[in-house]
Amino acid sequence: MAEADRFQIHYYLANNSHAMDAFVRNKCEAELLAIFQEVCSTLGTSIKIESIPFDQGGLREYWKVYGESSVQINTTLAILAIIVSVISTTLSRIPISDPEKDEREKTIQELTIEEKRLAIEEKRLALDKLRKEMKEGQPSHETIEKAAKAAELNLKIQSRRSNFYKQLGAYEKVTAVGFSVLDVHDKEVVQEHFVPRADFTKYVLIDNSLPTETVDGAVIEIVAPVLKEGNYKWKGIYDGEAISFSMTDAEFKNAVLQEKVAFQHGSCINCVLHIHRKFNEIGEVEITGYSAITVLDKTDGGSTVETTQGKKHRLYKKFIQNQQGLF
Q1: Could you say which of 155, 188, 203 is where a domain stops?
Q2: In whole angstroms, what is the distance from residue 302 CA to residue 296 CA?
Q3: Beta partners for residue 210, in sequence order
C-alpha cells in the first residue's frame, strides 16, 4: 500500500467558487485539529501537522502529517484512517428535529452505558490491538474500524465534530465537504468520504444533556438547610466539595418545615442523590445541579435515625436484588 503523506479537506463551494470565508474555515479546522489531538491521546501517540499550499477545485486544504519518528508510517496511516472514519460516519441514531427529543435522550443514555462498557473491555482491547499492529506492521482494516468505533464514542470527538458541521451549516456557500488521505503523488490512500450539505445536520448534537447520575447512599453534611416554603437551594458538603442542592424528598422537607427535624453543627443526611450533568462545547462533562430525592437517614454525632422513606427504599432494593437472584 502507498505511504500516507497528507490529509485533504475538500470544501465544495457553490457557483464554482474557489474562495471561502477565512473565519469560517479557520473555526472549522480548529475543530478538526482538536479531533486529531483527541484521537492521538486515545492511542497514546502524538503527531505533527503542517499546513501546506492548497489547490483550487472548490477549496482543498492539505495537512502534512508526521509521526513521532521518521519510521512511523503505519502509525500515521492508522491515525488518518481513524480520523476519516470518525469525521465521515453518519450517526443516523442522532435525531435532527425536536419531536425526536425523547429518542435522543434514550440514545444519549444508551451511548453513555455503551461507552462505559467499552472503556472497561471492548474499547481497551480494540485500541491495544491497534497499537500492537501499528508496531508490527500495517494495521488491518478490521482493526482500524473497531478502533474508530471506540474513538467515535468519545464525547469530545462528538462535540468537536458537531461544532465543525454547525459552522459549515451556517455558511451557505459550502455545498459539501470531503476528507481523504493522499500519498506523495497526490493519489488517494483512503478514498474520499463525501458528506453533502443535506447531511450536515445529522452530525450536529441537538441536546448536550447527559443521563442523570444516581448515587445511592450519598452522605451530605448540611451547612444550611431551608427552613421556609419555596424552591430554595440547600447548602452542604458532598465528597469534600461545597454544593447547593434541591431537596425533592417531600416527606423529609415537610418534616423540616414542621420542625420535626432539627439540625446542628455536623448534621449529615444519607440520601439517594441525583447528579445532573451535561457536556460542554469541547465535550467535557459539567455538573449542572444536585437533587436529594430520598433521604434515607439523618446523623447527628453518633446518633443515626432512619426515615420512613429510607426504610421503604431499602426494603424495595432488597426485594429487587432477591428477584434478580432467582434468575
Answers
A1: 203
A2: 16
A3: 277
pLDDT at 120 over 60: no
Number of domains observed in the structure of the chain: 2
Quick one: 225 and 269 in the same domain? yes
- Per-residue buried b or exposed e for 182-204, using 16+ beta carbons within 10 Å of the residue's own CB: beeeeeebbebeebebeebeebb
CA–CA dist 75, 36 (Å, integer):
13
Are 71 and 179 a contacting pair, CB within 8 Å? Answer: no
* Half-sphere exposure (Cβ direction) of 154: Cα atoms closer than 13 Å: 26
Residues 21 and 64 both lie in one domain = yes
Domain of residue 254: give its range.
Answer: 209-320
Pair 123, 234 in one domain: no
CA 272 – CA 254 distance, rounded (Å): 17
- The answer to whether 272 and 261 have CB atoms below 8 angstroms apart is no
| CA separation for the pair 247, 301 (Å, rounded) | 22
With beta carbons less than 8 A apart as the criterion, state whether 294 and 308 touch: no
Per-residue pLDDT band at 61 (split at 50, 70, 90): confident
Contact yes or no for 3/184 (Cβ under 8 A)? yes
Phi-psi region of 325 (alpha: psi -120 to 50; beta: other; left: phi over 0): alpha
pLDDT beyond 90 at 40: no
Model pLDDT, residue 234: 97
pTM given for the model? 0.66
Which grid cell is 152?
467515535
Identity (one letter) of the amino acid at 305?
Answer: V
| Position 325 in a domain | no
